[in-house]
Batch of 2 targets.
Target 1
Amino acid sequence: MQFSPVMASGPRIENILTCDVISIGFAKEKDGSWVLTGPTSLVANVETFFGLDLLDELAFFTPSGKAGELFEIPVSAQATKAGRIFLTCVGDKTTPDLRLAGAAIGRKVREKSIDVVSLCAKDKLEIKAHAISMVLGAYTWNQKSDAKKGKPKFFVVTNDSRNIEEAQIIAHAVCMARNLIHTPANIKNPAWMASQAQKIAREKKLTINVLAGKGLDKFGGLRAVGNSSPNPGPRFIQIGYVPKGVKKNRKHIVLVGKGITFDTGGISLKRPYDTMTAMKSDMAGAAAILSVLSALADLKPDVQVSALLMCAENALSGTSQRPSDVITHFGGTTVEVINTDAEGRLVLADGLAFADLTLNPDFLVDIATLTGAATLALGRQYGAMYTRDKALARSLVAVGERSGDRLWHMPLIDDYEDALESDIADFNHTADKGDYSAGSVTAALFLEKFVGDRRWVHLDIAGAARSESDAGESPKGGTGFGVRLLIDWITNL
Ligand code: BES
Ligand code: ZN
Ligand code: ZN
């Protein structure tokens, strides 16, 4: 686990001189002049201490004003640790720009054992967002035999230690999800996911129940997908956070995550084959909700939360399911399998029906790398959100903007519903009747068949769960999308 703590330090200059690097924010004003951001008197003290006029120094670099632009100034003063000042551009001083600035600072000190204090943000939520992003920018994952072992530590100047504790917990949770996603599928099979969940549950005193083998008799979708693999078979992993004390009408949220540890497509093998190499991340939904539960155990909101990790490997073998098979989901709905590469909705259907029929959730949320079509529609910066609950959609969009995991409310288009008809089962699963395209929409319409009358939200994160480049807050690979969103939503319900 790679993790760098974000910590509070008092507002006195002596405290920040114990860091190796002091990062000071700058921004362009409307009139084209430059200003330093961050706590004003402290920034002035830094200038006095080092005998520097930082705006003068800045002019030397001819900055563009883009958030995340960073200039290094070597400083030396006896009896201090500080050897560098980073002048970091905070763009328009908005929260998203403070995130980019944080990520740039983190990226600059990756794998180095360096203490960095940032004086970029002032306001509580901005400090939190900026602090989280420093950790996210510093994140790396590799299995290189000569991997660098250094770990930066990040500090911000604040008296609100709770705010920073929360930032630390959230950053840790996103890194945890990223670690799970980056782990390759020769290590990460459904049984491995269960052992990770068990470890977290033990450490954080969460409830856990894992079903495998005969225990999955009623989970026709999970079995049909997961029994294709010669690796240990599919796992249904249920983890619970229950607040202390008895309270009437406490809300219960159930999160369902797609946990396909590798998606070959099965008999409907993925083509072209290089599209398969990203498919170790097909468990990003499950990774996100496991990490969210781990964080909730520390944040202790007064909400009951259950996470259902639907874990299976979609392999190609003699025991793979066939296109044309008919399976029976939890609760009895029958489905005709058309394309075995649309496996995500089959495992989710069992999870959603289980939640609806046995857990009585007030809110039912699923999160899944479900369709390539979601990436075509929105790219990688937004998750596709489906729900008929307009008020809930509005609040989740706002939480998305605030947390950094942005969502776009997509339509559940009833006109496409007949695509799910089947001559031999209740539904066909790839919506192959008719010619509607809109693969992310029809996948959502399929899932809706399993949620009863619940207040349900479906998050298709196929695009946002993975970054194809090392840029902004994300490394190349798993982003941990959904972790900040769900933690923010649940803790502010
Ligand atoms: N895991 C994929 C979706 C995906 C694609 C995630 C690219 C991330 C990046 C999913 O299981 C899948 O293959 N979906 C098919 C469904 C189709 C066969 C109806 C798709 O989207 O092409
Ligand atoms: Zn697939
Ligand atoms: Zn998949």
Note: Residues 260, 263, 282, 343-344 surround zinc ion (ligand 3) (CB under 6 Å).
Target 2
Amino acid sequence: MAADRKLIRSGCNLRFFAYLCKLEYHSDLNQKMTNQKKIAILGSTGSIGAQTLEVIAQYPELFKATVLIAGTRVDTLIQQAIKFLPEWAIIADTSLYWKLRDALEPLGIKTAAGQDAINDSMNLDCFDTVVTATVGYSGLTPTLRAIKASKKIALANKETLVVAGDIVCKALEQSPSTMLPVDSEHSAIYQCLVGESPERVRRIIITASGGPFRKLTPQQIEEVTVRDALHHPNWQMGAKITIDSATMLNKAFEIIEARWLFNMRPDQIEPIVHPQSVVHSMVEFMDGAVKAQLGIPDMKLPIRYALGETFRLDAPEEHLDFDRYGTLTFEKPDEKKFPCITLAAHALTRGGNTACVINAANEIAVKAFLNEKIKFTQIYPLITETLAQIQFIASPTYDDYVACNAESRAKASEIAEKLSFNK
Ligand code: MG
């Protein structure tokens, strides 16, 4: 109790909570942001990247985009660079380098291309915070490099923690680097934990919209198309995460992400379906109190909270109108209809490289589904079949994860080929 009282007096006990989140709660922005914050965006042309640039444009006195990094959308990257005038613009696809260079070098913007250039850019001195908004496994290596370079991480790429949460956590422990979540659920949980003591948390409740197929019968889900799956009821997101939301594997990934981000036991993290997507997540404490964070479904809120490092910046967008959301409902996820959600418990109890295999197989499965090679209902068996065929490694090193990712993708591609005959 004495320790608790000391924490309450200090008024900044959040740093004792999640060892990843070493930032303290600030009520005064000037106290923490004496200089304009310089930001790198890993994946600037995707949905989160573009929304991060919108937030940066809203607060030019606070934020400056100094490094923009994209995968293949060179025209969008050029347009963004002309508008935001970063120091660097980098493209993963080396075949697009000349186009990028010719467009931007006359403006004094430095350019580079390739995965090595992206990884090396994490050491640049021209930024202090990186928003990791890239999709899938590709976020892991640059994020680890950014942690080693003592950068602040605004984590939108949940796969970084899904694939290799243990080594990412170890890297964070050994670095002054901090990590704040951009995922709306984890931002909500973080906001609920401010001012609380870690031992007094009973459980974390992660909300899920349930995706576009929540009300369909298993027979109807058998027949859904790519177009159906890409139509998310509440959130505007990139294609990969929209499919992950439809299978509910996104929620399994978010359970794994929460386990690492908040240092919780797996049995303390529960998903619940909340179709209105107004309650972004909740935390229950030992005394029975439940704290929730609510807001309209808009990713700019968690982006703003992460870039402001917990300071609440003004939001010019629409605010929550309770008249519009007359009823908020909650229900247990249907594991029979959405078996992918059970993969979280499997990954966390088995540990090792399990989640790395699941992620790799899913990336291949989603691509195969989007290309209409496999059916929606074949995504889950493709993942479990890959898991069955990849050797388990209890304590993988970084190199093991790299090899496991490559091997799992190759195996999943083989299985996808076979499944495509049975579509
Ligand atoms: Mg989310």
Note: The pocket of magnesium ion is lined by residues 183-185, 254 (CB under 6 Å).
